[in-house]
Design brief:
- The chain contains ten helices and ten strands.
- The chain has helices at residues 19-28, 39-42, 44-52, 76-90, 109-121, 138-142, 162-174, 213-221, 239-245, 253-279; strands spanning 7-11, 32-34, 60-65, 67-68, 71-72, 96-100, 127-132, 151-155, 179-183, 229-232.
- It is of the alpha/beta class.
- The protein has a single domain, classed as Alpha-Beta Barrel (TIM Barrel).
Length: 280
């Protein structure tokens, strides 16, 4: 995958919108931002519009619907109202609207997908998709979905369990998604001590310029699984150039394949051990 095909999306889950970060993002070539209806205590859309001001129309904005103050809900009327409210709060039609973690209610998955497809058809959003933390429950339900998403967003990176990676790829394939994006490449904390024991450079093609550990992990996230964009959050404007540089770093597909094979073998052994314990 060529670096030019890969993009960083400014994720606003943990850090929220900041004018300084938004300005720097545009300077280094990040022109996409990802938020959600429930971010910032359900004020994330208004906060983004307020901080960005006249800069907002330079960003491709994606958001998510499915969480409400009284809990997760995939009722069509509530989803459609949330999509409409997002556009009103942002002052512009969202470029992409995702179903937010529909694995919490897989029985309503098909109807919820149809609802977002209807929002797209009526002009409430330009594209729609599915954002899932755990796609395992959705794969069986995907066969009954009559519409096809523009995007599937899944966890990406070296900390994602093998079964989740396989399910993410199966979901995107089953739904014939036009694109796959990644999120949470650092499992929530790029400075976690767990990363100090991992030589992430092993996942890169040899002969490339020296890169930081963060860049190596992000480059690997574009390949585990294969995604065209990765949503990454930061509150530090100076970190954005480092993140963008990772899009030009090549992962070793041979190493990635070997890693995925090891994950599957580990999962297989775990299942066998669980069955043996159950029958023992």
């Amino acid at each position: 995958m060529r670096g030019a095909d890969r993009r960083i999306v400014l994720g606003l889950y943990r850090s929220g919108p900041s004018r300084a970060v938004l300005e720097r993002a545009l300077e280094v070539g990040i022109t996409a931002a990802d938020t959600a209806y429930n971010y910032g205590r359900y004020e994330g859309h208004r906060a983004l519009a307020s901080e960005a001001g006249e800069l907002l129309n330079q960003f491709e904005v994606s958001t998510k619907v499915g969480y409400f103050p009284d809990g997760h809900n995939l009722e069509p009327d509530r989803l459609q109202a949330a999509v409409a409210e997002a556009g009103e709060a942002l002052g512009q039609v969202p470029d992409t609207v995702f179903l937010h973690n529909p694995e919490h209610d897989p029985g309503r998955f098909a109807v919820a997908c149809e609802t977002l497809a209807g929002c797209q058809a009526s002009g409430l959003c330009r594209a729609w998709g599915v954002a899932t933390w755990n796609p395992l429950p959705l794969v069986p339900a995907a066969a009954g979905v009559p519409v096809r998403p523009d995007v599937v967003m899944v966890r990406a990176g070296l900390a994602v369990p093998g079964q989740v990676l396989d399910a993410a790829e199966n979901l995107a394939h089953e739904m014939s998604a036009r694109a796959v994006w990644g999120m949470a490449p650092f499992a929530g904390n790029p400075s976690d001590q767990v990363w100090s024991g991992v030589d992430t450079g092993l996942f890169l093609e040899p002969g490339q310029p020296a890169v930081s550990s963060v860049q190596a992990r992000l480059a690997a996230a574009f390949a585990v699984p294969s995604v065209s964009r990765v949503a990454v959050g930061t509150s530090q404007p100076d970190h954005l150039a480092e993140l963008v540089a990772a899009t030009g770093i090549k992962a070793s597909m041979e190493t990635v394949h070997a890693y995925r094979t090891l994950l599957r073998e580990r999962a297989r052994r775990g299942k066998e051990a669980a069955r043996a314990a159950h029958h023992g």
